[in-house]
Every structure is written in C-alpha cells, then in structure tokens.
Write a structure and sequence with these properties.
Elements (H helix, E strand, L loop, with lengths): L2 E4 L6 E5 L4 H18 L4 H17 L1 H12 L3 H25 L3 E2 L6 E8 L2 E6 L6 H12 L3 E6 L4 H14 L6 E4 L6 H6 L5 E5 L2 H13 L4 E4 L4 E5 L5 H13 L9 E7 L3 H13 L19 H17 L2 E2 L16 E4 L6 H4 L6 E7 L2 H9 L3 E2 L2 E4 L3 H10 L6 E2 L14 E2 L2 E2 L4 H6 L2 E8 L1
Parallel strand pairs: 5-6, 5-8, 6-7, 8-9, 10-11, 10-16, 11-14, 13-14, 16-17
Antiparallel strand pairs: 1-2, 3-4, 4-20, 9-19, 12-13, 15-18
Helix pairs in contact: 2-4, 2-6, 3-4, 4-5, 9-10
C-alpha cells in the first residue's frame, strides 16, 4: 500500500513511497548482520574519521535537509537548519569522545588483572518519531556506530524522505554499506523485526503505548531496550527570578518546534507574589508570536505535523475549557487549509481537565498560581510523567530543593530544558528509562564484559 507524504501547511501530497516488503526487510537484516561482523572489528580512528565525515555532510547539506524537514512535518525552517547543525555536533562529539567513553575500566581484585571491557552487541533497531526527524535519529546513530554496532531505522511514515536522507548521510560519508539502513515499514511490522534473531536491541522515542509495546516484545525476546517517551514538563517561577528572562524562556520552551516536543515546558507554576506580572507578560508574548508559512524566515509557529495531532489538541483544549480552564488568548483566524493551531494559554485547569494531566502536543500552555515552592513541586510531581523540569530562581536553597525533589530526568535552572551531547538525557516514571547522549548513551548498547586474569 502506497504511503503519502503530505505537506502540513498546504495538505498537498509531496511524494509517494512504496513500503518495503517482508523480503526487503529480511534482506536488510541479512546485510546488517554481515556488516556487523566486520564493522565491530574496525578501530576507533576509522570510525572517528567516518563520523567526522558524516558531520561534514550534514553541515554541507543542512539547508537541503532542513527544507525537507519543514516540508514533511512543518517546523519553522530556521529551527530545521539548527536541527541539522545539532546533528553534526553530536556526530563530532562521539567521533572525538567514544574511545575515551569506552576505554577499559581496571578494577582491583584478587586476580592478577581484572577489568571491564566494552564491546558492541550487534544490529540495533531504532523506532523514531517525526517531531525531530533528524536529531532523534542521530542521537542514537552516532554513539551506536561509534561503539561498533550497526543501526536499523524504522521512522515515522510522514517523514520517510528524511529517513532516506539520513541513510544517505552515512553513505556519502563513506560508511560501509549496511552500517545504517532505513526500513520503510509501518508500525505493524515492528514486532517481527524485534523478534528477528539478528536484531539484538531496540530503542524507541515516542508515545507511552508505543514504548510499552516495544518493551513488551523485546522483553519477551530477552533483548535490551531504551525508551524516551512523553512528558508534561513543569516550569516553576519563584519571586527571586528574572521575570523577563523567565517569560521569554517560557514562551520559547513551550512553542519551539510548534510546541511538539516531549521536553517542552507545558505546565507553568508561578509564585503568587509575581503571578500577575508573569501572567500579563506571558499573554503578551504568546499572543505576539507569528503563525504562518514555516518556510518564511520570520515565522515562529508553523502548522502541526498531522491533521490527527491538530484535531486531538483541539479536543483537549475544548474539554479543558468545559472543565473550567480559562483561555487567556483570543482565538486567531487561521488558514482553512493546513493543520494550524494558534498559541493558547489555559489558566487554572482543574485536575479533571486534560490540560492538567495529559501531554498537550502543540503550542498550548497550562498556567497556575502557587503559594510556595513546596506546592509548586508537589503539583509538578503530580503527573505520571517525569522527563524534564525547569525552575527560575536566584535562591540557592530553592535550587537545592528543586534538584532534590522534582521527579524528572533533568532539572534546568534559569534555562529551558534541552538535550546536549555532553549530558545524559532521559526520563523517569512514564517518560521512559535509560539514558541517551554523553557516556551513558554509548554505554546503553554495549556488552560490559568482565575480564579476570588469574
């Protein structure tokens, strides 16, 4: 069955793809297995040379890749260019640091020599989402390939050209055929790939149900997994904060990538002493955002990636308002064609409202007044998710309490939550398990072999 790629700004069909057959998939897995047998034996110098070359390809063709990202999933073009540049960064990071991250760890025991030796484990399947169509893939691929594994990508079906472009990056960089392959398959084919003996592990970035399914199948096969799932990140603002900086960061954190980010700030808890000031500025700044053609340089909010996402968000907002949440921004007129959603702030959503407990995947913020930090943290933690968190304060004691008590994989102070190749990234609770990036990321899919020599 042909799969269509649709421009979310115009609803025009961009391209049609023929999914891979079972025979195609089997052949790809055979190639991956064969390539792994030789790739695992390459030295770090060779892997590093090729990964630097991949970074060069990304930078040289960043405008072309960015155009395709925007065309397929609607993010503002400037942000797409920045995404390609960030992918080059993660490639260079692991090209420069993989050998150090994976070096033997000597441990003193009764043996003459004992140490931990990190070895690759084989072909790894990556099930990736559409919202950061390049970055999510490269933050897996760069450490996986530098560790000596080979990568197999199952990307979201609305960004299949991006998926094929990523495969081209590694090919153009000179990686041997089979080091990284894209499978054009639907979600219904994922189980058979995970269960295939040639696939040794799986990683998924996506929804909770998708993560649960992949983890269940892999667990049945006794294969390791890493999951980065959804989030309803809390953003706390205390009286000692720089209010202007907090508001600017709040708007940026909530609306980057058209609000379609797992680590976006989504639930805002502001201290009563500064609430009115923050609220006024927040409304002004969110209202001033330019919604429009994502190819234009000055556009800040493009369309949502798919009709279903736009419709789901609209229903969440409608239900939240019916439950008692107060919309603070007047509805903008939007084009009839395309999957548009104007920025919105919902105030005082009750516990029963979707805005209070569901992930809102679009430019909609939820705002509440709190009386103290303890209340802010308690409400922040009253969520099934635990991906990221942020607090704006200049009080050292409040920082220490937030770092200690916020149930999240990260806490950013006076800054928005962001991923960085130098720092571990991941969540707790329903936001997943395991860590990507930094040393943790490359250790996620290696055999940490104990060696003891008497």
């Amino acid at each position: 069955m042909t799969v269509r790629s649709v421009n979310p700004a115009t609803e025009d069909v961009i391209e049609e793809f023929e999914p891979h057959s079972d025979v195609d998939v089997d052949q790809a897995l055979a190639v991956a297995e064969e390539r792994y047998a030789s790739w695992r034996l390459t030295g770090f110098d060779e892997r590093s040379r090729l990964m630097h070359a991949a970074a060069d390809v990304l930078e040289d063709r960043k405008d072309n890749f960015a155009h395709r990202m925007t065309l397929e999933m609607g993010k503002p073009l400037k942000q797409a260019v920045a995404e390609a540049e960030k992918c080059a960064w993660v490639c260079r990071h692991y090209a420069d640091h993989a050998e150090e991250y994976l070096k033997d760890e000597t441990i003193g025991t009764d043996a003459k020599t004992s140490y931990v030796h990190n070895l690759p484990i084989g072909p790894v399947l990556a099930v990736m989402p559409w919202n950061f169509p390049f970055w999510q893939v490269f933050r897996f691929a760069a450490p996986a390939l530098m560790a000596g594994n080979v990568g197999i990508l199952k990307h979201a079906s609305n960004v299949w050209r991006c998926a094929l472009n990523i495969e081209d990056v590694f090919s153009e960089a000179g990686f041997p055929a089979g080091c990284f392959q894209t499978l054009l398959i639907g979600s219904d084919k994922v189980e058979q790939v995970i269960r295939d003996r040639r696939v040794r592990a799986a990683t998924l970035t996506g929804s909770g149900p998708a993560g649960s399914s992949v983890a269940s199948i892999a667990g049945d096969e006794i294969k390791p997994t890493l999951l980065e799932l959804g989030g309803t990140d809390a953003f706390i603002v205390m009286p000692s904060a720089d209010i202007e900086a907090a508001v600017e960061t709040a708007v940026d954190g909530r609306t980057q990538n058209n609000g379609q980010s797992c680590i976006a700030a989504k639930r805002f808890f502001v201290h009563a002493d500064i609430y009115d000031d923050f609220r006024t500025r927040f409304i002004e700044n969110m209202s001033a955002l330019k919604v429009g053609d994502p190819m234009q340089e000055d556009t800040q909010i493009g369309p949502l990636a798919m009709k279903a996402i736009r419709d789901d968000l609209a229903e969440q907002v409608k239900k939240s308002i019916s439950c008692g949440a107060k919309p603070l921004i007047d509805t903008q007129s939007l084009p009839d064609t395309g999957y548009w959603f104007a920025p919105q702030i919902l105030e005082d959503a009750p516990d029963s409202a979707p805005a209070s407990y569901e992930e809102m995947f679009g430019p909609v913020a939820s705002l509440w007044k709190v009386s103290n930090l303890s209340e802010a943290i308690a409400r922040a933690n009253d969520s099934e998710f635990g991906l990221g968190s942020a607090i704006f304060t200049s009080d050292k004691g409040e920082i220490e309490v937030a770092v200690r008590d916020l149930e999240a994989g990260s806490t950013f102070v006076n800054a928005k939550v962001a991923s960085d190749p130098r720092l571990p990234f991941g969540g707790v609770k329903a936001s997943g398990y395991g860590r990507e990036l930094a040393r943790d990321g490359i250790l996620s899919f290696v055999n940490r072999k104990t060696v003891s020599i008497a």
